[in-house]
């Protein structure tokens, strides 16, 4: 990447450098001063009144402690102290008489902020540069907001080595987002995607390529933003132009879309362009972020299955292809999902005539390729993708056809992109009844009728008998492989004989686990030259209770298809034998992983928590028939060879009809995970699973069982009660006293708060699983949770 490199003399450099902060006028914030978050906010103003320090209400009841431009209608925020943790109305920031500078909630509980305790603080001040400082009696700055920027740089501000900007999540959500701008230790100035939501740097999509030479980023009063090199030269990397700070407000911000932009705003109507122009970008990097993302499947300007294009304002725009929609309608950078039934891989129900292609010229998704064919025609490319149930997108360029599978990523549409994308979608004018097998049957009837009308009586009778015999044999052949469940019509999973499963398990030799109503054995299914390891679950109670559990499990899980749910492969209901055949999960249950081995890695536990939440959300909101699992707990979450968690044991599951949102049923579940409404004769909703997940989430992040009788203090026996006590008293470190990773993890407190919301006794106050995931991912702020036993506020 080329930049204009100029050598500058020491004199010129000193002229361009920002003025010394200690030379700026300011108004002292005296010891004992405080500001309270409320609708009639007081603020600490800079001498000119151009900048203010105080609370801004971001959402109803949620406040950000921030610095903003105070003389423009937009009140544009340039810095915040609690971007990942909005505070409630009544919270207070105070500069104590002993020099402590603290933010506290309405109960007086201290909330960590970017400005820590500093010994020797004599006063604070909001400067006209937009810098808030804490100083001693000699006016030496002990701390300043310029040293800990959020997503914005201001004139006179510098970014030293290790300094970084982190984008906001969205235009209205100020929590940390998906992009990072950083001056590294090696001197290279780099823009990264973040490994969201974990937060580490992932893929570098822009850099100054100054390894070994970069020293400091400076935004001077003349409107230039440049990188000072160790040899005394500089790079004007943002290609900024001279703009007087006396006439224009200025800021450089790493925006939520990953682009670093330099903005100006006229201070008066006499300035060029007039006040009405508002914030106007002058320059930005990279010039086209849609094309900058192209080297890693885990980094993209937009979500999976979406595509990025530049709008007329030169800003990237994320969109879903035709017949796809955003998973989160409120987040335009989220993943896209198909709004149609994907093509079946069943040979007899491939239904190729039900699918068509949406042509997208100048479009490409560089990853997810799994087959490529040179020297072919576009028509051949369309047909080969149509015949392949795994192919969801084909790309054709210069005689080469490339097939892609889900999820397709790093999509971009731009005139510089050659070729076209062919996206397979379901034909909206087609119906599912036009399958190949039904066509065959209709053809047989037509031929039969034709022949019948032109033949003698004897031949007609003979032919009619043959047709009936053929039809009977045809249907028998179809039923040999995948048979619908006799108990629950309409399912399409394999039906085994008891003899087959006895041979599969070698006489039920190797036991994997045992419960009150069932035992699970390891087995091997042999098909041609392949062997598939499976788990065979036998139900002990063959009376009504066992029969109902069997029906529930087959009915619920056979209707699901999600990577975080255990896959049901088949069943047996021969005489009194009731068996279920599942995919084999080689790493056992989450309970074993958490409680019977050494403490698992914090980030692995966090990944598992996200995956389980997605699995439950799928059951509640994405299935054709809503499913309440009713028994979410670590023992019912299994881990595959990659430690991917999958929810299992649907024996207690409850199906809801399309017009139902609640049901009444007898108590189900496991002690410690059962929601209170089970015992109160209340209607049961999906919120019982939310309650159970809240308990499980606490167990995951604290790495201990919900009930531990062998503890020193009786108050610590029940984890849910102990967690709320620790939260209320500000001693949450006690929950993970022996877990250094969790102790040093900023998000630990947030996940405890989410758990407390999930276990509210009033089910109407618990969030949905969709909202739980938004809280976990950081796309929605976590409000202060109330006491679970006396809730009055919902989210």
TrEMBL record:
Protein's UniProt name: Receptor-like serine/threonine-protein kinase
GO molecular function: ATP binding; carbohydrate binding; protein serine/threonine kinase activity
Membrane topology per record: Single-pass type I membrane protein
Keywords: ATP-binding, Disulfide bond, EGF-like domain, Glycoprotein, Kinase, Lectin, Membrane, Nucleotide-binding, Receptor, Serine/threonine-protein kinase, Signal, Transferase, Transmembrane, Transmembrane helix
Reactions this protein catalyses: L-seryl-[protein] + ATP = O-phospho-L-seryl-[protein] + ADP + H(+); L-threonyl-[protein] + ATP = O-phospho-L-threonyl-[protein] + ADP + H(+)
Protein family: Belongs to the protein kinase superfamily. Ser/Thr protein kinase family.
UniProt enzyme class: transferase
Secretion signal, residue range per the UniProt entry: 1-23
Tagged with keyword Chloroplast: no
UniProt KW Oxidoreductase keyword: no
Source organism: Fraxinus pennsylvanica
Transmembrane segments: 444-472
Record-annotated Protein kinase domain positions: 506-776
Bulb-type lectin domain segment(s): 28-149
PROSITE patterns associated with the record: PROTEIN_KINASE_ST
């Amino acid at each position: 990447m080329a930049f204009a490199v100029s050598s500058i003399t020491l004199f010129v450099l000193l002229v361009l450098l920002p003025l010394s902060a200690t030379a700026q006028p300011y108004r002292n914030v005296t010891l004992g001063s405080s500001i309270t978050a409320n609708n009639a906010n007081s603020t600490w103003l800079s001498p000119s009144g151009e900048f203010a320090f105080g609370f801004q209400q971001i959402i109803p009841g949620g406040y950000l402690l921030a610095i903003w431009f105070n003389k423009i209608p937009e009140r544009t925020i340039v810095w915040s102290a609690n971007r990942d943790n909005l505070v409630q109305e009544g919270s207070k920031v105070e500069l104590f008489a002993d020099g402590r500078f603290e933010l506290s909630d309405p109960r007086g509980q201290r909330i960590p902020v970017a400005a820590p305790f500093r010994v020797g603080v004599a006063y604070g001040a909001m400067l006209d540069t937009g810098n808030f400082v804490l100083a001693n009696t000699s006016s030496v700055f002990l701390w300043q907001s310029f040293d800990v920027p959020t997503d914005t740089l201001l004139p006179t501000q510098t970014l030293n080595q290790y300094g970084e900007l982190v984008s906001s999540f969205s235009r209205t959500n100020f929590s940390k987002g998906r992009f990072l701008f950083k001056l590294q230790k090696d001197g290279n100035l780099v823009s990264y995607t973040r490994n969201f939501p974990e937060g580490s740097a992932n893929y570098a999509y822009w850099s100054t390529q100054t390894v070994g030479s970069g020293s400091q980023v400076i935004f001077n009063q003349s409107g230039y933003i440049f990188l000072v090199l160790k040899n005394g030269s500089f790079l004007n990397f943002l290609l900024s132009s001279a703009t007087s700070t006396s006439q224009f407000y200025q800021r450089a911000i790493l925006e939520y879309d990953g682009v670093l932009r330099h903005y100006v705003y006229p201070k008066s109507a006499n300035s060029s362009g007039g006040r009405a122009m508002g914030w106007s970008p002058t320059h930005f990097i990279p010039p086209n972020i849609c094309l900058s993302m192209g080297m890693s499947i885990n980094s993209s300007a937009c979500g999976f299955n979406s595509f990025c294009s530049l709008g007329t304002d030169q800003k990237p725009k994320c969109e879903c292809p035709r017949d796809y929609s955003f998973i989160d309608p409120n987040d335009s950078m989220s993943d896209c999902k198909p709004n149609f039934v994907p093509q079946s891989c069943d040979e007899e129900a491939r239904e190729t005539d039900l699918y068509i292609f949406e042509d997208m010229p100048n479009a490409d998704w560089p990853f997810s390729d799994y087959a490529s064919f040179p020297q072919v025609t576009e028509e051949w490319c369309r047909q080969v993708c149509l015949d392949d149930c795994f192919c969801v997108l084909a790309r054709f360029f210069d005689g080469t056809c490339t097939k892609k599978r889900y999820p397709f990523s790093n999509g971009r549409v731009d005139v510089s992109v050659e070729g076209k994308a062919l996206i397979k979608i379901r034909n909206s004018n087609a119906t599912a009844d036009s399958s190949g097998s039904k066509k065959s049957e209709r053809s047989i009837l037509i031929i039969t009728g034709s022949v019948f009308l032109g033949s003698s009586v004897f031949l007609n009778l003979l032919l009619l008998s043959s047709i009936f015999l053929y039809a009977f044999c045809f249907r028998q052949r179809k039923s040999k492989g995948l048979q619908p469940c006799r108990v629950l019509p309409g399912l399409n999973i394999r039906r085994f004989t008891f003899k087959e499963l006895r041979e599969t398990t070698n006489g039920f030799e190797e036991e994997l686990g045992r419960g009150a109503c069932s035992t699970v054995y390891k087995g091997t299914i042999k098909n041609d030259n392949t062997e598939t390891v499976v788990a065979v679950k036998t139900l002990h109670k063959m009376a009504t209770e066992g029969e109902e559990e069997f029906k529930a499990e087959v009915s619920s899980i056979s209707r699901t298809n999600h990577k975080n749910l255990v896959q049901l492969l088949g069943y047996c209901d021969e005489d009194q034998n009731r068996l279920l055949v599942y995919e084999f999960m080689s790493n056992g249950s989450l309970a074993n992983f958490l409680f019977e081995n050494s403490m698992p890695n914090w980030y692995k536990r966090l990944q598992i928590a996200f995956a389980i939440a997605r699995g439950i959300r799928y059951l509640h909101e994405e299935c054709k028939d809503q499913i309440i699992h009713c028994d979410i707990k670590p023992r019912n979450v299994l881990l595959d060879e990659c430690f991917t968690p999958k929810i299992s044991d649907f024996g207690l599951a409850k199906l809801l009809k399309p017009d139902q949102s609640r049901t009444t049923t007898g108590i189900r579940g496991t002690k410690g995970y059962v929601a209170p409404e089970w015992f109160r004769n209340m209607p049961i909703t999906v919120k019982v699973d939310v309650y159970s997940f809240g308990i499980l989430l606490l167990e995951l992040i604290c790495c201990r069982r919900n009930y531990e009788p062998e503890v020193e203090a009786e108050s610590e026996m029940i984890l849910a009660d102990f967690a709320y006590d620790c939260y209320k008293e500000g001693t949450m470190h006690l929950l993970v006293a022996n877990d250094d990773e969790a102790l040093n993890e900023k998000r630990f407190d947030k996940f405890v708060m989410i758990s407390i919301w999930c276990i509210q006794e009033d089910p109407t106050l618990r969030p949905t699983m969709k909202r739980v995931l938004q809280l976990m991912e950081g796309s929605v702020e976590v409000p202060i949770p109330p006491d679970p036993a006396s809730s009055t506020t919902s989210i």
